[in-house]
Each structure stands twice: as structure tokens, then as C-alpha cells.
User: Fold these one by one.
Assistant:
Number 1:
Amino acid sequence: MTSDSREVVVVILAAGAGRRLGGVAKALLPARPDDERPGDGWDSDVMPAPSSFLARVARAAAAGGAKRGVVVVGPPHGERVAGEARRLHLDVVDNPDPARGMSWSVALGFEYAETRFGAARSALLWPVDHAGVAPATAARLVAEAQAADPDRILVPVWRGRGGHPTAFGRALWPELSACGPLPRGARSVLDRRADRVRRLDVDDPGVAADVDRPADLG
């Protein structure tokens, strides 16, 4: 791809131990039947049908136009999550010490993206516990990112609440690659580049609905 590529990729964070869920991998939680959305542009010949949270995220990203990406995995579930990522035709990078905080997963994911997807226009930063985001929301973010300057940050907002996935233009990837030791991680980049942030109102509660505890699985 040339340097003016409009491609948007996805960086999926899936290195958590899931302690508040009883020690299960969020990425491997089963996608519920009512999460299925027939007719949303999903091509079953391109990627397997969703059976897990990770598959649900990958499906929404791909249906929205972000067809390539990387999944950040880590112990104790790293091997199993990596296997699911490869089933979904996604690249994998390992975070050997997720206990350091999510910022290190962000840094590792974007460091990999710089090397592997360096010609892309933007990347969706997508925690795997936000598995309920609609493909239409991903498609809007991808389209806006393709049209935006490469130093833009796009944040989806539902009823005044900012959420995920957040699109970071290519020019900001080096800052994200270095965000590991920062106290606020990727939020430090958001704070520093506040003038480059654009908030997009979406009719999608999934952008603000993460899964941390069993009650959140409702």
C-alpha cells in the first residue's frame, strides 16, 4: 500500500485476566444469540461467524471496513485468545506483563501497528469487552477516519458518554506506542491532543457498555 492509503485497521485489547469475572478471558466469553444482526454486511466467507466476544468485535470491525488488525494478548489466557485471534485472521502481539496496566497493551498494539500497518490512515482502538458495538457504528468511524486528517482522534459518544472504539490517526501512533509508562496511558494522548479530538454522536449504547463484572453480562 502507498503512503496515502485510506485503510483503517483495528487494535484490539484482549490481554486482561478477567479477575472481576472470576478469572475468565473476556475475549472468549460466548457471543449471545441476540447479538446476531442479520443483514449487517457480514460476509461469512471472509471470517467465521461470531462465537466469542473477540469474534463479535472482529466481525463488527470487518463489516465496518477495518478488515485487518492485531489483538494484544497476555497471560494467563494468552495462548487460547491468540488461537481465537488467528482463527479470525488477525495478527497477535503478546503483552508479557498485563498487570502493569492497559496502557502497556495500547503501546504494544500500536508499536506493532506502526511496523505492520504503517501505511494505514487510522486505527480503531477497541477493548474486547466492548463487544456490543454495532457494525454500523464501526462503519461510520471508519468512513470519518478515512476522510479526516491523519492527526485526528474520533470518539463515539452515546447520550453524552464517550466510549469505544476510538479512532487514532496515523500521525498519533508514535505517541500511543510510547504511552505505556504514562500515568493516564492513552488518555494522556487524548489530553495532550484535545484540539484534535472530534466527538461523534452515535445511536449505539454499545460504545459505552463494557463488561467488567458478571452483572454486566445481563
Note: Helices lie at 53-64, 78-87, 102-116, 135-147, 173-177, 186-192.
Number 2:
Amino acid sequence: MTPRSLIVIPTYNEIENLTPITDAVLGVTPETVHVLVVDDGSPDGTGKMADELAKKNPRLHVLHRTQKQGLGPAYIAGFRWGFQNNFDQIVEMDADFSHNPKYLPTMLDLLNKHDYVLGSRNVPGGGTVNWGILRKIISRGGSFYARTILGVPVRDFTGGFNGWNRKVLEDINLDTMESGGYSFQIELKYRAYRKGYRFIEFPIIFEDRRVGKSKMSSKIVVEALSMVPKLRFKN
């Protein structure tokens, strides 16, 4: 039986990207793949537009949250929605085209053979486009830092384009996740690895967002860096 897959896309003020990204995702995936937009009360009307799009396509769904609470809680809410609606696989994906939908068929195919799959900028064939040298240093340095301290052979620890078989997410106890921002991606991968699940990284080219404003900030970077030793010495 073909597994049912859910692409979870968190949004906050992504009204310019919403229609193009959902059209692109649904266009490259089979009928068994659905999309869930998790909107954190976007003041620009993203949530309302998502509702309108969902009325036109039964494969598109919307989960509204009343306020911006961070990337981690948004994804966890999406994961739980996926569990409740009997999806077998769940993919994390940004709304701004930095994660190109063309990689989804490859990711979903690999998910049939591995417990979780990571779209990686840091394996041969992967990379970034339109990034300055400082951002490259922060990204690669952050992954190297996490990999070294945690002792986990993940090349792209901070990347957010990841696919999970349901059993992995159910087993890592989402109720006790401590990370709210981008360190959520590090903690999720670390917990899955500690549980002994099998993963693979495959190369992606990460493109800077086409429109809209980046959510990255120095505060987010500091939070991610400080969370790594907490994970290591707590476990």
C-alpha cells in the first residue's frame, strides 16, 4: 500500500509565497500527498488566503494558531495534526522556496527505505545560492559545532527540509521538546539518532527566499548554539 504523506509548511506573513509554493508542491507530488499550512496568525492575511485555497483543493489543509509561538511549536502542531489524520510520513518544508519542491519526489522515495531523510546542503552535490560568506560560515559552522559536541554524523544539522516516518516522531516524545526556534531542527535529529533510527542525507541546493523577509536573526543563532551543550549533557 502506498503511504499517505503530509507536507507541513509553517507560515507567518507569507502571503506572497503561499499560492506559488502550494501549487508547486501539489503539482510535483501524487494524489496520496497532502499539504498542511500551519499559520501563526499572520497579520498579512496568509491564513485567510490559505483557507480560500483549501476550499478549492481537497489535498490542501490549514491549521490556525492564534499567535506566533516559534518554529518548533508550529511543526509539533503540524505533526500532531498528521497523526490525528492518519498520515504515514511527514515532511518539514519552508514556504519561501528555499526548499525547492522538485526535491520532494526524491525525499518521499527515500522515506520508503529509511526512517528519516534529511535534505542536505553539506553533502557532495548540495549547496546554497545567493548566500553571503558570513551566512555560509554561520550555517556550516553551526552544523559542525552541533555534530562535534553531540557526536552525531549529520552533515546538515540546522537544515529544515526533512522527512520523517510517523513512528520516529511518535517515539521521540514531542511533549518534552525544549527547543522553540531553529535549534528545534538540531534537537529533533539528535533525538531520532539517539533512538537508533536510520537516516540518509541527500543533496539539495538551498536558494535564498524569492520574496518576503527572512525570519533569521542573531537571537535565533545564539539560541541554537546555547541549546547544543544542554542537549549533550542532559542526555
Note: The chain has a mean pLDDT of 91.
Number 3:
Amino acid sequence: MINYVAYYRTSTNKQNLGIDAQKTMVQNYLKSVGGILVEEVEEKESGKDDNREGLERAIQICEKTGSTLTIAKLDRLSRSVSFLFQLRDRVAKNNVEIKALDLPSFNTLTLGIYATMAQAEREAIASRTKLALAELKRSGVILGKPENFKHEHRIKGAEAMKLKALENKMNQQATALINEYRAKEHSYDRIAEQLTKLNFRTAYNKTFTSTAVMRLYKRNLQNIDKLKMVA
């Protein structure tokens, strides 16, 4: 059996639910692989802060026990690309493996690649969101309380909600996972089951269904086509 050290992080002291969700993902994974949980390390610290005592402690435990550092999602490590590259060099030097549960093909060797991709995606999302909001305003979408909108404004507001759902962080991570599974020809039902096991939720905090998976997958394909047309 493989030994694991779980690392959980939230940005504020009020995000205990985030810790619980991460623990559920790790526990479900360990049950599925029969792994041994050596220790759990919790930390309430901003992802922008590279001085992370909890993460350092978790890595040291992995080095001493030969355990795999396990995180629910890649962004629990850091938002800083430079920090992630430094972390990659550190753990590779000491033969520490890292497992990110939201990215099945992720490992220590691909950490730098995923870090670079994550930053590029964040920048692309910010750019797309800015352009989309500008287009919505140009089309006459009025920001404010829904009850004050006219019928046509509510229709356009629904489009804005779809955009928000697309750009939802959880959806971004779920989409990456869906794309990976679809490339392996997994069915929508099977993907929905896997997302549920990993404790993923939709933008409306619902459990993923095969329909929701298909909708998100096709929406992402449409988004990619639009970006190709603009490029």
C-alpha cells in the first residue's frame, strides 16, 4: 500500500466547508485505491502567499515517511507559477510524489506544465470575461436587480448567467476533467459518476448528471470554436 499525506488549504478562517470538501475528495480517493493516510495538514492561508508553513510541514513529513503528497485540487498548492516551479524542483530532488485529485494524469513531472497551463487559462478567462461583458453592455444588458428588468433584459441577463456558469472556477476544473475522460471515450454517465466521487458540483451547487456533463462539454467546444474564429 502507498502512504499518503493530505494537504488542505483555504484562504480564510471562514472557509471550513472548503476544508471539509477537500477531505471528502481525499477520503474517497484513498478508499478507491486502498491507500494509507499517514497524516493530514490543514492551512488557512492565501494562495498568493508563498510562505506556507503548513505545506512545508506536509512536504517534510512526505520526505521522512516516503509518502505521496495528496491535494484535492491543484490550486490548493499555490496560484503562483514561480512558486510551483520551485516546489517541483524541491520535491523532485527529494523523490516526493504529488497527487492532485482533480487532474488524474497529474504528477510531479507534469507539475510545471500544469502550472503554466493554469496561468495561461486564468489570463485567457480574464480576457474572455472582459470582452464578453463589454459585448453584453454593448447589446444593452442592464446591470442591477432582476425585478427591475424588462422582459428583453431578463433574456439577456440569462445569457450573462450562462457566461458566469461557464467561467465558474469549479466548472473550469470539471471541464478539464471532462475533456480528459472524453478523450478516453468515457460515457457522460461514467464521467458524471466520477465527478460526483471527487465531490465536484455544478455552478448551481448541484450534483453532476450526464446531461450537465454533456452540456458543459459541448459548451466548451463551442467556446473553443469561437476563440478560433477570433484568432
Note: Residues 17 and 189 are 27 Å apart (CA to CA).
Number 4:
Amino acid sequence: MPMTWIKSILVVEDDADIAKLVRMHLENEGYETTHAEDGREAIQLYDQGNFDLVLLDLMLPHVNGMDVCRHIRTDDRYVPVIMLTAKGEDANKVAGLEIGADDYITKPFSVIELVARVKAMGRRVEMLGRLDDEPGEKVLACEDLEIHIDKRIVTRGGEDLKLTQKEFEIIKILAMTPGRPYSRRTLCERAGVESFDGTDRTIDTHIKRLRAKIEPDRNRPTFVMTVWGFGYKFTDKFC
């Protein structure tokens, strides 16, 4: 992944008024935007362009947003995708995140919030690029919490928190994409957590133990946040 700020954004939205409003606010912030009115046009523009981010409505004519996201994820180059979903489309949110979307925002949404999400995604992309490009030990830092990728240890205030291998995998996955929500199932699969009760809720036990070690107050977590009805994410508010 190149170490760069997000500059060029593909806005995929069939509602002309919403697309115009979103583009106006993004361009006021200095972003370059291109508009696709349907899924077919989105795929064509994506293949012809060099975009740094895709804002993707799921309900589109001709080709739906899920298929557009799948197409984007066949590209060797990583391009973040923020889904635009209607209120109550919880199943679509889960499905979209499972196939490779990075974040979602629910309609009706505040354009100010949307711009904030785009900026947060830019910080995330730059952090990952810096992690890939810089020589030496790779460390993710958030306040006094440090995740040492190569050493596979996590410290807070310089003290080794003695995480288990599963706990380390979970915090690494979450912290490498701060703000990106992960479903319980995805965390189980990526961290190699086996279910002991036949459900995805097994991950909750690991999160509880992880929080007891990394959080200053396990009852008021500031690092590993709950996404209600879905899963977990790492905070992006102060990293």
C-alpha cells in the first residue's frame, strides 16, 4: 500500500441530490471526486481511474453495491471502501464488511460525519503505509499502548501486558485498521479462535480477557470498542 493521503474519491450513488451534496463537501475539503450513478458505471470508472477511496451505496441500478465491492477487491491494489447503507439494513452491513468493505455509514447521515469518516480513513491508510515502508521494528502506538508486531508483545507505559497468542492476534487485527468494525465471525476466523459453544460469541470471552489487560478501566474501554449488534473495533479517536 502506498504511503499517501486520500486524494481522489469515487462516489457511487444513484440519488443525484445526495451525490451532489457529498461531492460539494468533499471538494470543499480539497478532495477530487468522480460520480458514478449506477453499479455498472462504477466498475467502468474504477477500472479506468486511480482512486484512493470509494464511497459506495449498496442499493444501485444494474449492478448492486455488493458486486461492485467484490469487483474492487479483485484488484491487487488496496482501495478503501466506505459503504452507504439505509437504516435497518443490518444484514447488508454485515455482508458488505465480510466481503471487504472497510466501514459503513447509515442513511440518513450527516455530511460532516461522512467527511470525518473519510479523514479517519486517510489517517488509517497513511498509518498502514508507514508501517509497511519504514525499516526496523514495526510498532502500532495509541496513547501509551504499543503493539510490537515483530516481537508479538503489547506494552502499556512500557510494561509487557503478557497477552496470549490469541489475544495478540485479536488486538493486532483491530489496531491495524482503527475505526473499522469487525464482526465476531470475522475476528474468530482471522485470529484463529475456535468456537467452544458453537456460536461466534466465543470471541466475547477473549475480548473480555483482552480488555482486562490493556484497558485502564475494563468497564469503560477506550481502546477496544463494542459495535453493538455486530462486533468490535479499535478506536480511531486519539491515535
Note: Residues 8-129 form a domain with the Rossmann fold fold (CATH 3.40.50.2300).
